[in-house]
């Protein structure tokens, strides 16, 4: 792993869970990590409820755009975090892979998305503490 680990967050549509996770990783990890997100079947825009939920916690993901998952993105990452994308993610030896079982926020209201957001924040904090042991996050 390089001095600056690269984390790739992947979900099917790259419109909710992976965008929220990437937002937290960027906010909490700052310039100590490279953060990527992608989807196996990306939507054309980010879920507005996910944007609202993140804004409530002071993180702006409104300018992000869903992206297609590429083999290069996986190859270039030190940690690959999947969220329900199943077998769509290519596997490379020596990478750290985790699959986070998270409810898909698509079609849900803000009251249902807040607990998903909070779960993602906790998981990202734990991940960053493991990848960046000398620099604990907030």
From TrEMBL:
SMART domains referenced in this protein's UniProt entry, alphabetically: LMWPc
Transmembrane parts of this sequence: none
E.C. number: 1.20.4.4
Keywords for the protein's UniProt record, in alphabetical order: Arsenical resistance, Oxidoreductase
Example of a GO MF term: arsenate reductase (thioredoxin) activity
Domain Phosphotyrosine protein phosphatase I: 5-130
A Pfam family matched in the record: LMWPc
InterPro entries: Ptyr_pPase, Ptyr_pPase_sf
Gene3D superfamilies listed in its UniProt record: 3.40.50.2300
Keyword Oxidoreductase: yes
Entry keyword annotation includes Zinc: no
Matches recorded under SUPFAM superfamilies: Phosphotyrosine protein phosphatases I
PANTHER family, per database record: ARSENATE REDUCTASE
Protein name: Arsenate reductase ArsC
Source organism of this protein record: Curtobacterium citreum
């Amino acid at each position: 792993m390089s001095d600056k680990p690269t984390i790739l967050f992947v979900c099917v549509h790259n419109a909710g869970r992976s965008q929220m996770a990437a937002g937290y990783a960027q906010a909490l990890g700052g310039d100590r990590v490279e953060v990527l997100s992608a989807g196996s079947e990306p939507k054309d825009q980010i879920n507005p409820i996910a944007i609202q939920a993140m804004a409530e916690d002071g993180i702006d993901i409104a300018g992000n755009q869903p992206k297609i998952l590429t083999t290069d993105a996986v190859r270039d990452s030190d940690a690959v975090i999947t969220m329900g994308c199943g077998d769509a993610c290519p596997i490379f030896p020596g990478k750290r892979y985790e699959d986070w079982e998270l409810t898909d926020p698509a079609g849900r209201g803000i009251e249902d998305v807040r607990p998903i957001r909070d779960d993602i924040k906790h998981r990202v904090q734990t991940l960053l503490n493991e990848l960046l042991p000398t620099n604990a996050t907030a």
